[in-house]
């Protein structure tokens, strides 16, 4: 197997951070779901879904490090959705600059996952 490119490692670390933050948010929401005066079942469902998504996201990060094509595809889909959401939000909200940063990060992630070295790494 070809040596893992630094760009793939960077994307995997970013994916881990995102997964960890989603997991922590889900755990906090889960705790909040059982607090007195909590909103109810919908809040509990969102908490559980966030926890599951966080765990899957962390696993995808590990998959990127192992050269998993499936992890690369899932990350690509998420980055494309993030890019589309950011572009839409640039014009639909008052957060142009933060959405521009989000869009640029998605583009950088996509570029790093599809460099020549990254293609060789995921091909083997």
Oligomer: single chain
Q: Beta-sheet strand percentage?
A: under 5%
Shape: flat
Structural class of the secondary structure composition?
Answer: mainly alpha
Q: What is the terminal separation in angstroms?
A: 6 Å
Architecture overview:
This is Integral membrane protein. The chain crosses the membrane at residues 7-35, 41-65, 72-91, 97-115. It comes from Herbiconiux aconitum. Keywords: Membrane, Transmembrane, Transmembrane helix. With 124 residues, the chain is an all-alpha fold. It has one domain. Helix content is 84%, strand content 0%. The protein contains 5 helices and no strands. It has helices at 6-33, 41-66, 69-92, 96-113, 116-123. The termini are close together.
Give a brief outline of the structure:
Keywords: Membrane, Transmembrane, Transmembrane helix. With 124 residues, this protein is mainly alpha-helical.
Index terms:
mainly alpha, transmembrane helix, 0% strand, single chain, 124 residues
Provide the fold topology.
Elements: H1 6-33, H2 41-66, H3 69-92, H4 96-113, H5 116-123
Helix pairs in contact: 1-2, 2-3, 3-4
């Amino acid at each position: 197997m070809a040596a893992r490119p630094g760009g793939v490692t960077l994307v995997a670390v970013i994916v881990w951070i995102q997964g960890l933050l989603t997991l922590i948010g889900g755990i906090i929401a889960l705790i909040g779901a059982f607090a007195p005066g909590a909103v109810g079942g919908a809040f509990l469902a969102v908490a559980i879904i966030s926890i599951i998504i966080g765990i899957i996201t962390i696993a995808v990060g590990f998959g990127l490090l192992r050269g998993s094509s499936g992890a690369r595809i899932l990350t690509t889909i998420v980055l494309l959705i993030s890019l589309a959401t950011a572009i839409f939000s640039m014009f639909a909200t008052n957060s142009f600059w933060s959405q521009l940063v989000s869009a640029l990060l998605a583009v950088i992630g996509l570029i790093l996952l599809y460099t020549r070295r990254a293609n060789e790494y995921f091909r083997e």
